[in-house]
Amino acid sequence: MNKMQIKTLEEYREKYAQSVSDPEGFWEDIANEFQWMKKWDKVLEWNFTQPDIKWYQGAKLNITENMLDRHLEARGNKPALIWEPNDPGQQFVSYTYRELYEQVCVFSNALKKQGVEKGDRVCIYMPMVPELAIAVMACARIGAIHSVVFAGFSATSLADRINDAQAKLVITADGLNRGSKQIPLKRVVDEALGNTLCVEKVIVFDCLGWQPHMKEGRDISWSDAIAGQEKKCPPEPMDAEDPLFILYTSGSTGKPKGVVHTCGGYMVYTAYSFQNVYQYEENDVFWCTADIGWITGHSYIVYGPLLSGATTVMFEGIPTYPDAGRFWQVIDKYGVNQFLTAPTAIRSLMAFGDDHVLSYSLDSLKVIGTVGEPINEEAWKWYHTHVGKERCPVVDNWWQTETGGIMISGIGNISPQKPTFAGYPLPGIQPVLLNQEGIEIEGANEEGYLCVKFPWPSILRTTYGDHERCRVTYFSHYDGYYFTGDGAKRDEDGMYRIIGRVDDVINISGHRFGTAEIENAINTNKLVIESAVVGYPHPVKGQSIYAFVVCDREIPSESQDFARGEIIESVVAEIGKIAIPEKIQFVSGLPKTRSGKIMRRILRKIAEGDMKSLGDTSTLLDPFVVDEIVENAL
Ligand code: PRX
Predict the structure, then answer these.
(1) Calpha distance 627→614 (Å, rounded)
(2) Atom 6 of ligand 1 has which residue's CA nearest to it?
(3) Is residue 600 over pLDDT 70?
(4) Domains along the chain with CATH numbers
């Protein structure tokens, strides 16, 4: 598949120019590198008004045929997936392409036996075990639409996602390992299913040997489900524009929305971006430390690498267990060539000092990547020096759940590196910076709203069950542009630096939460009348949550910790531990304009400890409330 690869900066420039002057020709050449059951009638048809975007119309394919069947002849005995368990003392598991193909077929047949058909939604709430990747691919093989929910979400969040997608079947496990802890999953599913009517069956993988309660007629163990199933299952012919999966993500308003990706375009773009950004070569071992519950895990643990015939590493554990050298130990253990992690992980490991990382050779590494949030210069340099040994390029991958694949990034050792700059757009990606009025900024070193003016194959097609929400959120801010929600800057060489979200989205350890979503969770607490949350800089997590809470009574200082605990419990119940506010300040009122709008700008400054730049507060409904908040700030 190396016809897809750019090998020099000059080639990048040529391909980029071609992708702009002749996008259809460009993406047709790339698509020709895959196996299609029937080729397309038309490469692209689109408008960003409705929006209506169709790639490779009329084509038929199955993405798993491209990930598995296609590789059997040349790569049947090559490791496809290596699983590193949480406990370093436990034996790792490796699947060759043939073994993975067989396991996916077996589980595809098991799903069919449970009544799953093409177009049905299947919710996957699983630990980071190989069966999670197998379940994802089995859905894709039979044309069922998978909706993976990160296993840190609460029963309420899980139920919301199951209901929104009207999932027919749930795949889960008894529980999961996370460092020295074990966390229940089946119990959470049982609770969630108390608030859903659509789920007919639950398949339960045995991860911890807990033997959880099984509901008669609904629940079946993974081993019973696969018993006697054949190792062959024909791949379902899918239209290029048939949905492949739904993945829920947070925005600035309302509940998380189900971003929908489709089969053809997502396949082409994840493989293309993987092979170029990481300069993948045959027999390289690629490791992305994300969880498959997020888009990074979908695109760069499962789809991109396996479409490319690569060996992908999947890790069950956490970076600090049993010690802060775990990542580096695993890299040496498997001879990992390309490594992708998040700035938050880098910062947390930096805090343990250099000894851990210096204890390992890391000689196998060729390219190291970061993703999910802006990386600060200090973390970039530490990563480049101690992990990349100043030998490996650091590729900073900017993209989003909605974009399906990496959009702006360094390209292996081909493109120049500049700490804190993501880099150039990949071929086929046409970013622009817009000013307040929606006019494109042409000059260098100015900040603007990051938008994209032309479709690429893995752009989201809709938000599940609510196309209007997709239009309003992404295509209505600026006519004719996809709006990312990020602010960015471009230097004189055309490299982009991502500044961060310009909407009410907080990025905690690379995970997105809407302020409204967290406020709704806090407001479910019986003590609370209203609340406002803002993000503030955090040395490890990137951002953290600061909540300003108005209660129905004054909370005396000796009871405040107890009340905080109660509010945290509400957030854990509604969303999960990942969204716990770091700081909760009880206030008698919130700064509001006369029209009732909360002035988050002021709260953000207070949370940052920047009391000098609060600006003019005289127009507020009650300016004195600000003085009180400042005085008691945490
Ligand atoms: O604000 C940007 C930030 O994460 C957002 C997308 O989050 P999500 O859909 O969860 O996907 C994360 C993994 C792709 C973006 O709008 N973001 C992501 N990558 C970067 C980034 N910010 C700066 N630099 C990055 N490399």
Answers:
(1) 11
(2) 400
(3) yes
(4) 512-631 (3.30.300.30)
For residue 245, the model assigns a pLDDT of 98
C-alpha closest to that of 37 among 240, 222, 339: 240
Burial of 91 (0-12, 13-18, 19+ CB in 10 A): exposed
First to last CA, the chain: 55
**Could you tell me the two tokens for 438?**
């929606």
Q: How many CA atoms lie within 13 A of 7 on its CB side?
A: 3
- Per-residue pLDDT tens for 279-296? 999 999 999 999 999 999
pLDDT at 60: 98
Phi then psi for residue 492, to 5 deg, are -65, -20
What is the distance in A from the centroid of ligand 1 to the CA of 373? 5
Confidence (pLDDT) at 1: 52
Bigger pLDDT: 103 vs 504: 103
pLDDT tens digit string along 452-487?
Answer: 999 999 999 999 999 999 999 999 999 999 999 999
Integer angstrom CA distances of residue 273 from 9, 396, 446, 459, 584: 16, 13, 27, 13, 41
C-beta of residue 331 within 8 angstroms of C-beta of residue 360: yes
| Mutational test site, ligand 1, from 383, 400, 474, 578, max ligand atoms within 8 Å of CB | 400
Which structure tokens are listed for 286? 């690629």
Q: What is the pTM of this model?
A: 0.96
Measured CA to CA, the distance from residue 323 to residue 312 in angstroms comes to 23
For residue 401 and ligand 1, the question of a CB distance below 6 A is answered with yes
Ligand 1 centre from 383 Cα, in Å? 19
